[in-house]
Design a protein that fits this description.
The complex is a heterodimer of chains A (241) and B (450). Chain A is of the alpha/beta class. Helices cover 36% and strands 23% of the residues of chain A. Classes of the chains: A alpha/beta (241), B alpha/beta (450). The interface between A and B is medium-sized, with 26 and 19 residues.
Chain lengths: 241, 450
């Protein structure tokens, strides 16, 4: 978790009244929030709450049925849950390919910068299919950062990582936030959200039920909750989820 | 698109099995087609049971010597005869599949032929028996076409000999000569000489006498017989081959079967490589989870569809041209038309690739896309090869309508025209239309692709 960012006049990201329907089913209903530069926000909620749908809409992968997102997709770094890179290409080739598609001025230099930032320089020539799940995820995140975005979206970034790789991932993400990047990530791990997020968004059944700090969620859950995960479960139970 | 093309080519290069198949497939097909077209069918093994008395010794019919062995050798030119002793052995070999069929020449064949020529009466036609295994319809068809045509050749030869003998009899009747029957020799004066003799006698017979009038009638008859028997020889020749066949191509140009087979092989290869590659490469974008990342502002849906179409068409056209080059080692192809081959395979490839990306967009998974591609394209190709007249008119109209919305038939017409000559503009325009239509379907299919 970074030092709490002071609220700015213009947030790095503003989501206003976003609704998404899949036929009759409403996956998101009237979701609004803002994220400031340098702030890290965790989106938590039960399965099927709409977390991935929310990030997909902000990232430009899905269109909202209604509502607005302040940023164009090209200005947002999007890291999907599954590594969205090519197994038959090397680490460097993947980075250079997406740097070219992002229209980076110098794709090779952009790839070099990411290799250094992710600590994968020694594996630059290896085909991605030969890397471990953790290293593949690091490349996946590096691709999301190629355009040096002001906003970074991470969909369950640590789900396939071992504890050591997780620690390295969060060290990396925290450093990005410290440099002013607004980070929004989804997770099922409430402890991870508590450790690394400045703010929590609680989504359930497509509705934004809570927007506040971990301490505020603890308070909102009442006297019985001794830690954040218990507070989160109690909070949802009180509201019938 | 250039960046994506470079990426996909790199991925292809890293897939040695796929690249190996892309190169090996046209070479293998070229060798198979080439060998099949250049070698021709071998002589079929046919058992022959010769029951002829004397093993087919020469015989004399109407003073003409006939050599049965001469006809046996003619038969051997087109089949590989396996001499067997008995009908039972022939039957066993046919049933065991050792020989394709068996020809049984009966003991009394020559006597019957002789009786026929000598007009000795009796209505037993000389008959050669053919045994074959009718269990396999394809084999049955092959035997029928092979043996029937050989027996027909023999019949023609025997018929020619019979005509020759009969013509000899007519010559004897007309012009006279020596004739042997049952060891005795006869001198036949002939109708021409008989008329001359009668006319000579007539000059010596006083006019107005009954004898003169009767001799005049006999002379007129002899004159008529001489004139009309001369016409009998061409009539006999036409009886030997009663129906003449004149082949007239009513429509279209004449493409040799070999060259058309090459066009079919090239089009089938183009179709399989193109459809499978385009469908697979598009579905792979989804399986690698890269599709969502690409289309969130980096690449448009239309560009992605176009890139896969260009990639698959280029690879498949290269494979098809490789196949042409391979086949040309066995079958004479006009290399002067090579630019047309390139044009036809490239445009045909675009049509097939557009169909492939539509399949990939709808199937969404590589395995499902490959399966769907095979299941859809092969029946369409076979339907497109059904000739008019082979099925009911209404059914043919349905087949034609189905074939018109898939690229196989216009691609075949284009490749055929490119290889063998003919109008290219129509098929190419048809393919261009189908490319746009199938690409549009693929573009719509991508909406549910992420």
């Amino acid at each position: 978790m970074t030092a709490a960012a002071a609220p700015s006049a213009t947030p790095a990201l503003a989501v206003t009244g976003v609704t998404r329907r899949f036929g009759q089913r409403v996956a998101l209903r009237d979701v609004s929030f803002t994220v400031d530069g340098g702030e890290t926000v965790a989106v938590i909620g039960p399965n099927g709450a709409g977390k991935t749908t929310l990030l997909s809409i902000i990232g430009g992968v899905l269109a909202a049925t209604d509502g607005d997102v302040s940023r164009r997709p090209a200005d947002v770094g999007w890291v999907p849950q599954q590594p969205a890179v090519y197994g038959k290409l090397t680490v460097r080739e993947n980075l250079e390919l997406f740097a070219r598609l992002e229209r980076a001025a110098d794709p090779r230099a952009a790839a070099d910068a990411m290799l250094d930032q992710t600590g994968l320089r020694d594996r630059a020539g290896d085909e991605l299919s030969t890397l471990s799940g953790g290293n593949r995820q690091r490349v996946n995140i590096a691709v999301g950062l190629l355009a040096d975005p002001d906003v970074l979206l991470l969909d369950e970034p640590s789900s396939s990582l071992d504890p050591r790789q997780r620690a390295r991932l969060w060290e990396f993400v925290d450093a990005l936030a410290a440099r002013g990047t607004a980070v929004v990530f989804t997770t099922h791990d409430v402890g991870e959200a508590e450790r690394h997020a400045d703010r929590l968004l609680v989504l359930a059944d497509g509705q934004l039920l809570f927007d506040g700090t971990p301490a505020e969620l603890l308070a909102a859950a009442g006297q019985g909750a001794s830690h954040l995960e218990a507070a989160f479960v109690a909070f949802l139970a009180e509201r019938g989820f | 698109m250039r960046v994506l093309l470079a990426k996909d080519l790199r991925i292809l290069r890293r897939s040695p099995l796929l690249v190996g198949l892309l190169v090996a497939y046209p070479i293998l097909i070229a060798v198979l087609i080439g060998l099949a077209l250049s070698q021709g069918p071998g002589k079929p093994k046919v058992a022959v049971v010769n029951e002829l008395a004397g093993g087919g010794a020469p015989l004399t019919i109407g003073g003409t010597r006939v050599e049965p062995l001469e006809y046996a050798e003619k038969l051997s030119e087109s089949i590989d005869p396996v001499q067997v002793r008995s009908r039972a052995e022939a039957r066993r070999r046919v049933l065991d599949g050792e020989v394709l069929a068996a020809i049984i020449v009966p003991r009394d064949l020559l006597q019957r032929v002789q009786s026929t020529i000598a007009l000795a009466g009796g209505n037993q036609r000389p008959t050669v028996e053919v045994l074959y295994n009718a269990q396999d319809p394809v084999k049955r068809r092959f035997v029928e076409s092979t043996i029937d045509s050989r027996v027909a050749e023999l019949n023609r030869a025997v018929s020619g000999k019979l005509t020759e003998v009969a013509a000899g009899y007519i010559d004897l009747l007309l012009r006279g000569g020596h004739f042997s029957l049952l060891g005795r020799s006869f001198d036949v004066i002939g109708l021409e000489r008989a008329k001359q003799m009668i006319d000579t006698v007539l000059t010596r017979t006083p006019r107005g006498t009954p004898s003169h009038a009767e001799l005049q009638r006999v002379s007129r008859f002899a004159g008529l017989a001489v004139d009309n028997l001369d016409l009998a020889k061409p009539i006999l020749r036409s009886a030997g081959a009663p129906i003449a066949v004149k082949e007239v191509a009513l429509r279209g140009r004449h493409t040799p079967l070999n060259a058309y087979a090459v066009a079919i092989a090239v089009t089938l290869s183009l179709m399989l490589v193109c459809v499978l590659l385009a469908a697979g490469m598009l579905a792979l974008e989804r399986e690698e989870h890269a599709f969502s990342r690409l289309v969130r502002g980096l690449v448009s849906h239309t560009t992605l569809v176009a890139e896969k179409i260009v990639l698959a068409a280029a690879c498949a056209a290269a494979a098809a041209l490789l196949l042409c080059a391979g086949v040309s080692l066995f079958v004479a192809l006009d290399w002067g038309r090579a630019p047309w081959w390139v044009l036809a395979t490239a445009v045909g490839g675009l049509g097939f690739a557009a169909l492939g990306v539509a399949i990939g967009a709808l199937a969404r998974e590589v395995r499902a896309a490959s399966l769907l591609a095979i299941l859809l394209t092969l029946p369409i190709a076979f339907l497109a090869l059904v000739p008019s007249g082979a099925v009911d008119d209404t059914l043919y109209d349905v087949i034609r309508a189905i074939s018109a919305v898939f690229p196989f038939r216009p691609a075949l017409h284009a490749v055929d025209a490119a290889i063998n000559g003919g109008g290219l503009a129509g098929p190419l325009a048809h393919l261009a239309g189908l490319t746009v239509a199938w690409a549009a379907i693929a573009r719509v299919g991508l909406r549910r692709f992420a």
